[in-house]
Write a structure and sequence with these properties.
The chain is an alpha/beta fold and about 240 residues long. It has eight helices and seven strands; from the N terminus they run βαβααββαβαββααα. The longest helix is centred in the C-terminal third of the chain and has 20 residues.
Protein backbone atom coordinates (compact mmCIF):
# COMPACT_ATOMS: atom_id res chain seq x y z
CA UNK A 1 0.00 0.00 0.00
CA UNK A 2 2.68 2.49 1.00
CA UNK A 3 6.41 2.30 0.38
CA UNK A 4 7.34 3.63 3.82
CA UNK A 5 10.54 2.69 5.55
CA UNK A 6 10.68 2.06 9.30
CA UNK A 7 11.76 4.83 11.61
CA UNK A 8 15.17 4.54 13.27
CA UNK A 9 14.42 5.09 16.95
CA UNK A 10 17.90 4.29 18.23
CA UNK A 11 18.53 7.86 19.46
CA UNK A 12 15.23 8.46 21.26
CA UNK A 13 15.72 9.31 24.89
CA UNK A 14 19.32 10.43 24.55
CA UNK A 15 19.97 13.87 26.04
CA UNK A 16 20.01 16.59 23.40
CA UNK A 17 18.54 14.36 20.67
CA UNK A 18 15.42 15.93 19.08
CA UNK A 19 12.21 13.93 18.98
CA UNK A 20 9.72 14.19 16.13
CA UNK A 21 6.07 14.74 17.04
CA UNK A 22 3.29 14.57 14.44
CA UNK A 23 0.06 16.44 15.24
CA UNK A 24 -3.16 15.33 13.51
CA UNK A 25 -5.87 18.01 13.41
CA UNK A 26 -9.25 16.94 12.02
CA UNK A 27 -10.94 20.28 12.71
CA UNK A 28 -12.59 21.82 9.66
CA UNK A 29 -13.29 25.42 10.68
CA UNK A 30 -10.67 28.19 10.71
CA UNK A 31 -9.73 28.47 13.44
CA UNK A 32 -11.16 25.28 14.89
CA UNK A 33 -11.42 24.38 18.54
CA UNK A 34 -9.68 21.11 17.70
CA UNK A 35 -6.68 22.99 16.30
CA UNK A 36 -6.68 25.27 19.36
CA UNK A 37 -6.64 22.23 21.65
CA UNK A 38 -3.90 20.39 19.76
CA UNK A 39 -1.85 23.61 19.70
CA UNK A 40 -2.09 23.87 23.50
CA UNK A 41 -1.17 20.22 23.95
CA UNK A 42 1.74 20.54 21.54
CA UNK A 43 3.14 23.66 23.20
CA UNK A 44 2.91 22.13 26.66
CA UNK A 45 4.63 18.96 25.46
CA UNK A 46 7.41 20.97 23.83
CA UNK A 47 7.89 23.00 27.03
CA UNK A 48 8.10 19.90 29.23
CA UNK A 49 10.53 18.18 26.91
CA UNK A 50 12.70 21.31 26.66
CA UNK A 51 12.81 21.67 30.44
CA UNK A 52 14.08 18.07 30.58
CA UNK A 53 16.78 18.79 28.01
CA UNK A 54 15.07 17.31 24.95
CA UNK A 55 14.17 19.31 21.85
CA UNK A 56 11.06 18.52 19.83
CA UNK A 57 10.42 18.93 16.11
CA UNK A 58 6.72 19.41 15.31
CA UNK A 59 4.93 18.48 12.08
CA UNK A 60 1.28 19.48 11.63
CA UNK A 61 -1.13 17.33 9.65
CA UNK A 62 -4.26 19.39 8.98
CA UNK A 63 -6.84 17.12 7.39
CA UNK A 64 -9.34 19.73 6.14
CA UNK A 65 -7.18 20.91 3.20
CA UNK A 66 -6.75 17.33 1.96
CA UNK A 67 -10.29 16.13 2.73
CA UNK A 68 -11.23 15.68 -0.94
CA UNK A 69 -8.06 13.71 -1.62
CA UNK A 70 -8.72 11.50 1.40
CA UNK A 71 -12.10 10.62 -0.11
CA UNK A 72 -10.59 9.92 -3.52
CA UNK A 73 -7.87 7.81 -1.92
CA UNK A 74 -10.45 5.63 -0.17
CA UNK A 75 -12.28 5.04 -3.43
CA UNK A 76 -9.07 4.38 -5.37
CA UNK A 77 -7.67 2.05 -2.72
CA UNK A 78 -4.34 3.86 -2.42
CA UNK A 79 -3.29 7.29 -1.09
CA UNK A 80 -2.86 10.33 -3.29
CA UNK A 81 0.26 12.47 -3.17
CA UNK A 82 -0.78 14.76 -0.28
CA UNK A 83 -2.23 11.90 1.75
CA UNK A 84 0.93 9.89 1.18
CA UNK A 85 3.00 12.82 2.41
CA UNK A 86 0.90 12.97 5.60
CA UNK A 87 1.32 9.24 6.14
CA UNK A 88 5.07 9.57 5.74
CA UNK A 89 5.08 12.26 8.45
CA UNK A 90 3.41 9.74 10.77
CA UNK A 91 5.91 7.07 9.79
CA UNK A 92 8.82 9.34 10.69
CA UNK A 93 7.30 10.54 13.97
CA UNK A 94 8.43 9.37 17.40
CA UNK A 95 5.06 10.34 18.91
CA UNK A 96 1.63 11.57 17.85
CA UNK A 97 -0.91 14.07 19.15
CA UNK A 98 -4.29 13.17 17.63
CA UNK A 99 -7.19 15.61 17.78
CA UNK A 100 -10.68 15.23 16.36
CA UNK A 101 -14.05 16.96 16.65
CA UNK A 102 -16.87 14.86 18.03
CA UNK A 103 -20.17 14.86 16.13
CA UNK A 104 -23.33 13.07 17.29
CA UNK A 105 -21.46 10.91 19.82
CA UNK A 106 -18.80 9.85 17.31
CA UNK A 107 -15.35 10.88 16.15
CA UNK A 108 -15.02 12.89 12.95
CA UNK A 109 -15.65 10.96 9.75
CA UNK A 110 -12.75 12.84 8.19
CA UNK A 111 -10.42 11.64 10.94
CA UNK A 112 -11.59 8.02 10.59
CA UNK A 113 -11.31 8.14 6.80
CA UNK A 114 -7.71 9.31 7.03
CA UNK A 115 -6.84 6.65 9.59
CA UNK A 116 -8.39 3.99 7.34
CA UNK A 117 -5.62 4.75 4.83
CA UNK A 118 -2.81 4.07 7.33
CA UNK A 119 -1.01 0.75 7.18
CA UNK A 120 -1.83 -1.54 10.10
CA UNK A 121 1.81 -1.71 11.25
CA UNK A 122 2.74 1.95 10.87
CA UNK A 123 2.03 3.06 14.45
CA UNK A 124 3.28 0.09 16.45
CA UNK A 125 4.50 1.30 19.89
CA UNK A 126 4.25 5.00 18.99
CA UNK A 127 3.11 7.06 22.02
CA UNK A 128 -0.11 8.99 21.35
CA UNK A 129 -2.07 11.71 23.14
CA UNK A 130 -5.79 11.38 22.39
CA UNK A 131 -7.84 14.58 22.20
CA UNK A 132 -11.34 15.59 21.20
CA UNK A 133 -13.57 18.66 21.16
CA UNK A 134 -17.33 18.98 21.04
CA UNK A 135 -20.31 21.18 21.71
CA UNK A 136 -21.34 19.42 24.88
CA UNK A 137 -19.75 17.57 27.77
CA UNK A 138 -22.00 14.59 27.02
CA UNK A 139 -19.49 13.53 24.34
CA UNK A 140 -16.53 13.37 26.72
CA UNK A 141 -16.30 9.57 26.79
CA UNK A 142 -16.06 9.32 23.00
CA UNK A 143 -12.31 9.92 23.19
CA UNK A 144 -11.76 6.88 25.40
CA UNK A 145 -14.44 4.71 23.85
CA UNK A 146 -13.55 5.30 20.20
CA UNK A 147 -10.13 6.93 19.82
CA UNK A 148 -8.46 4.72 22.43
CA UNK A 149 -9.80 1.52 20.89
CA UNK A 150 -8.88 2.76 17.40
CA UNK A 151 -5.24 3.34 18.33
CA UNK A 152 -5.21 0.08 20.28
CA UNK A 153 -5.96 -1.65 16.98
CA UNK A 154 -2.81 -0.05 15.56
CA UNK A 155 -0.90 -1.23 18.67
CA UNK A 156 0.09 2.33 19.50
CA UNK A 157 0.69 3.37 23.12
CA UNK A 158 -2.01 5.83 24.16
CA UNK A 159 -1.06 7.83 27.26
CA UNK A 160 -3.33 7.25 30.29
CA UNK A 161 -4.79 10.78 30.31
CA UNK A 162 -7.17 11.52 27.44
CA UNK A 163 -8.33 15.07 26.71
CA UNK A 164 -11.74 16.45 25.81
CA UNK A 165 -12.81 20.09 25.68
CA UNK A 166 -16.42 21.27 25.65
CA UNK A 167 -17.28 25.01 25.48
CA UNK A 168 -17.36 25.33 29.27
CA UNK A 169 -13.88 23.81 29.61
CA UNK A 170 -11.97 26.55 27.83
CA UNK A 171 -12.15 28.97 30.73
CA UNK A 172 -11.37 26.29 33.32
CA UNK A 173 -7.97 25.79 34.90
CA UNK A 174 -8.79 22.07 35.05
CA UNK A 175 -8.28 21.72 31.29
CA UNK A 176 -4.77 23.13 31.62
CA UNK A 177 -4.00 20.65 34.40
CA UNK A 178 -5.17 17.73 32.28
CA UNK A 179 -3.12 18.95 29.32
CA UNK A 180 -0.04 19.14 31.53
CA UNK A 181 -0.66 15.64 32.83
CA UNK A 182 -1.05 14.15 29.34
CA UNK A 183 1.96 16.06 28.00
CA UNK A 184 4.08 14.85 30.92
CA UNK A 185 3.06 11.25 30.27
CA UNK A 186 4.05 11.58 26.62
CA UNK A 187 7.37 13.22 27.48
CA UNK A 188 8.22 10.49 29.98
CA UNK A 189 7.46 7.76 27.47
CA UNK A 190 9.63 9.44 24.85
CA UNK A 191 12.56 10.00 27.17
CA UNK A 192 12.41 6.49 28.60
CA UNK A 193 13.03 4.83 25.23
CA UNK A 194 10.45 2.17 26.15
CA UNK A 195 8.39 2.56 22.95
CA UNK A 196 11.52 1.96 20.87
CA UNK A 197 12.36 -1.15 22.87
CA UNK A 198 8.82 -2.51 22.53
CA UNK A 199 8.83 -2.00 18.76
CA UNK A 200 12.28 -3.52 18.32
CA UNK A 201 12.07 -6.46 20.72
CA UNK A 202 8.54 -7.57 19.76
CA UNK A 203 8.70 -6.85 16.04
CA UNK A 204 9.21 -10.45 15.03
CA UNK A 205 6.12 -11.61 16.93
CA UNK A 206 3.73 -9.39 14.96
CA UNK A 207 2.06 -10.57 11.78
CA UNK A 208 3.08 -7.80 9.40
CA UNK A 209 1.15 -6.66 6.38
CA UNK A 210 3.63 -4.09 5.08
CA UNK A 211 6.29 -1.83 6.61
CA UNK A 212 6.09 -0.38 10.10
CA UNK A 213 7.59 1.23 13.15
CA UNK A 214 10.77 -0.60 14.14
CA UNK A 215 14.48 -0.55 13.44
CA UNK A 216 14.57 -4.23 12.55
CA UNK A 217 12.09 -5.79 10.14
CA UNK A 218 11.81 -9.02 8.25
CA UNK A 219 9.65 -7.51 5.55
CA UNK A 220 9.00 -4.06 4.13
CA UNK A 221 6.67 -2.59 1.53
CA UNK A 222 9.39 -2.91 -1.07
CA UNK A 223 9.05 -6.69 -0.74
CA UNK A 224 5.39 -6.65 -1.82
CA UNK A 225 4.50 -7.47 -5.42
CA UNK A 226 2.01 -4.73 -6.23
CA UNK A 227 1.56 -6.11 -9.78
CA UNK A 228 0.08 -9.41 -8.60
CA UNK A 229 -3.57 -10.23 -9.37
CA UNK A 230 -4.41 -10.07 -5.65
CA UNK A 231 -2.95 -6.59 -5.24
CA UNK A 232 -4.65 -5.39 -8.43
CA UNK A 233 -8.00 -6.55 -7.05
CA UNK A 234 -7.26 -4.91 -3.68
CA UNK A 235 -6.66 -1.61 -5.48
CA UNK A 236 -9.97 -1.85 -7.33
CA UNK A 237 -8.51 -3.03 -10.64
CA UNK A 238 -8.79 -6.26 -12.58
CA UNK A 239 -6.37 -9.19 -12.73
CA UNK A 240 -3.96 -9.09 -15.65
Amino acid sequence: MNDIHPTDHSAIGRPGTPVAIAVINAGISDPSTTRLLTDRITQRTVDILRDAGTQAEISMIDLAPIASEIGRSLVAGFPGEDVQAAIEVLAAADAIIAGTPVYKAGISGLFKSFVDLIDNDLLIAKPVILAGTGGTGRHAMVVDEQLRSLFAFFRAISVPTSLYAAPEDWGSSELGKRITRAATELALLLRSGAPRDIADDNWGSYQHQFAGNATRTERTASDIDFTSDLMRLAAGGRPA
